[in-house]
């Protein structure tokens, strides 16, 4: 009798466990189905007309009439700004980078070059970047500002989608520290020029003579 009760108790326990598992699976499948249906209807793809132009970015800051120069120094951040046009499919994020002529590419901005897809500007503290990245310092050279969306830097031109932009250029330089003359500052160009005159005394004498002749002639003409 004891063994039968134990067997019956074990069978009931197994049935309860199976029922709970089946119930849990049913609830999980139901939640997954609901979640899936919600995710599919949350962000539908916008309708893109077949004749829609490609989405574009126009850089507004800095002006591109000429290549601007920015110095890498404290409290000298650079602001890059742009405007969108013909964007139908808004990117989730933008990537902004500075491609240098030395072959290196640097992230622009405080968030490693990744900003929201609707952003229209970014501020880059080049001095802060320089001090925190000694292994890859910014070079004194010309750079190309590159901006692209979810499709990547080599995205094909598509109606309504953002087209990558790499039309803006700028240059960076590091200002030299001031050195007073009393601390040993010298002018190499000036010294070389003086040494050239010292090495050609005949030329210096000829120039002096011609100047005196010209001055004497001017005085004579005035008296007449």
TrEMBL record:
Transmembrane feature ranges: 202-221
Listed Low complexity bias regions: 7-26
Annotated region (Disordered), positions in chain: 1-63
Residue spans of biased composition, Polar residues class: 27-41
Domain of life: Eukaryota
Keywords: Membrane, Transmembrane, Transmembrane helix
Limits of the DUF7137 domain: 52-188
Protein's name in the database: DUF7137 domain-containing protein
């Amino acid at each position: 009798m004891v063994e039968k009760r134990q067997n019956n108790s074990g069978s009931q326990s197994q049935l309860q466990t199976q029922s709970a598992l089946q119930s849990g699976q049913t609830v999980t499948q139901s939640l997954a189905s609901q979640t899936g249906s919600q995710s599919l209807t949350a962000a539908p793809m916008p309708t893109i007309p077949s004749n829609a132009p490609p989405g574009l970015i126009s850089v507004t800051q800095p002006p591109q009439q000429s290549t601007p120069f920015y110095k890498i120094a404290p409290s000298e951040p650079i602001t890059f700004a742009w405007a969108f046009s013909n964007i139908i499919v808004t990117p989730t994020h933008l990537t902004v980078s500075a491609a240098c002529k030395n072959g290196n590419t640097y992230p622009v901005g405080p968030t490693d070059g990744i900003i929201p897809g609707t952003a229209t500007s970014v501020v880059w503290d080049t001095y802060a970047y320089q001090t925190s990245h000694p292994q890859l310092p910014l070079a004194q050279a010309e750079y190309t500002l590159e901006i692209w969306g979810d499709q990547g830097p080599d995205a094909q031109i598509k109606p309504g989608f953002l087209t990558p932009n790499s039309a803006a250029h700028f240059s960076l330089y590091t200002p030299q520290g001031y050195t007073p003359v009393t601390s040993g500052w010298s002018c190499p160009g000036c010294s070389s020029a003086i040494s050239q005159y010292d090495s050609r005394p005949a030329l210096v004498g000829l120039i002096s003579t011609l100047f005196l002749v010209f001055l004497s002639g001017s005085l004579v003409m005035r008296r007449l």
